[in-house]
Every structure is written in C-alpha cells, then in structure tokens.
Recover the amino acids of this structure.
C-alpha cells in the first residue's frame, strides 16, 4: 500500500516562529499536495507540486511556502506562524494518472499560541 | 468556478437504518467525483470514485453513490448503517487537466450513529 507519512501528529508553536511540516511518500508519486482542514470549511488546497522543484499555488497560499527538493518529500513552511494558522494540515500524493484518487497522510494538528 | 456543496453538516441515524449523504457540484466539464471518509484523528480514506460509464458506483464498506448529471449530484448511500460508520464524509470533484490533479472538497458531513 502507498504510504504518506507526516512527521508529526501534533505540534505546538509560538507566534512568529518558522514552522516546517514534513511529508514523505513511498510510492514514487509525482504529484503531492498540502491541504488545511477547518471545521465547516472542509479541505482547502494550500500548495501542490507536480515534480521536483515545481510548485503551484492553491486556493489559500498566503502565509505559506513549500519545498520539494526530492520526489518523495514535500515540505510546508509557515514563514512566521500566526494564530489563524492553527489547523489540521493534510498531505496527499497521487501519480500522474491518478485514477484512484489521492492517498492522504494522517494529518498534523498544529496549534499556534 | 468549481465548487462542491454538502448541504447537511450533521446527520444522525440509528444503527441498521439506511443512509443518504447529499453532494452537489459545480463544474463545467465532465466531472471526476470522489467520496472520502475520515475517522476521528485520521487522514482521509477513499470510499469510491466516478469517472465515466455506469452512473451507480460501488465502493468499500458497503457504500455506493449515484451520479446524476441533470441534478449535478453525487449522493452517497448505504442500505444499513453500522456503528463503525460514524465519521466525517467528504465529497470532492476533480478539477484541472485530467480531472484528478486538483481536488476540490465540500465542507463535509459528520455522521453520528445511535445504537
């Protein structure tokens, strides 16, 4: 089975800190995605990547950046964390012919205090 | 712009009762449609998908969904709910080239099951 692993299940960070959320997949997928999940809003796409060193903005990229130096790893960066970035963050991956939909990680619940 | 609407935020059913979760989408082309389930504290798991062909699709855990183009709907159904089905359910439409490269999700429906 494809595995998408997010390095932390829970994180607590202070306002203004630089935060790194890591995601690794083990099936050589080209496409990787970062979503945030908030009650009543569903999942909203932050950034995605079709290949190494390639990235595209999603619907809510403000306050975030990403890095994809290796195919299997896709990092989400909060340059200066703010309390309104407290959320559940979900990483997903899929091959180019993604007929089976996305494979999601278990999520990272980030609290910014 | 593409969008997905799940009209019901919360639904409560009794164990053994039938279930229907509603999903309406807005998309200009032939949609790629998905239903995912999320158990508490977990990521999302794919229940079923529709790309083309038979409009009634079967998924895992006894779920099925019917695509109705005239109503822009893709409702999820299960004939007899089990207590383990309590979770949050998300409908999604695939946008972008190929239809699967970017998923747009609804706000979700939280299902509670009474014994």
């Amino acid at each position: 089975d494809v595995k998408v692993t997010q390095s932390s299940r829970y994180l607590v960070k202070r306002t203004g800190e630089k935060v790194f959320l890591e995601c690794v997949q083990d099936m050589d997928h080209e496409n990787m995605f970062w979503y945030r999940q908030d009650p009543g809003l569903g999942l909203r796409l932050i950034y995605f990547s079709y290949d190494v060193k390639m990235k595209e903005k999603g619907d809510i990229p403000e306050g975030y950046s990403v890095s994809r130096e290796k195919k299997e790893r896709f990092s989400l960066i909060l340059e200066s964390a703010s309390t309104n970035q407290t959320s559940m963050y979900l990483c997903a991956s899929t091959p180019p012919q993604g007929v089976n939909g996305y494979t999601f990680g278990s999520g990272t619940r980030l609290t910014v205090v | 712009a593409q969008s997905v609407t799940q009209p019901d935020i919360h639904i409560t059913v009794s164990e053994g009762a039938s279930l229907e979760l509603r999903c309406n989408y807005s998309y200009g082309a032939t949609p790629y449609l998905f239903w995912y389930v999320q158990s508490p504290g977990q990521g999302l798991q794919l229940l079923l998908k529709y790309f083309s062909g038979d409009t009634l699709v079967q998924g895992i855990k006894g779920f099925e969904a019917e695509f109705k183009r005239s109503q822009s709907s893709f409702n999820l159904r299960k004939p007899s709910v089990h207590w383990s089905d309590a979770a949050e359910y998300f409908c999604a439409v695939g946008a972008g080239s190929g239809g699967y490269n970017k998923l747009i999700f609804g706000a979700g429906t939280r299902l509670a099951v009474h014994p």
Notes: Chain B touches chain A at residues 4, 6, 9, 34, 36, 41-46, 49, 51, 90, 92, 98, 100-108 (CB under 8 Å). Chain B is about 0% helix and 55% strand.
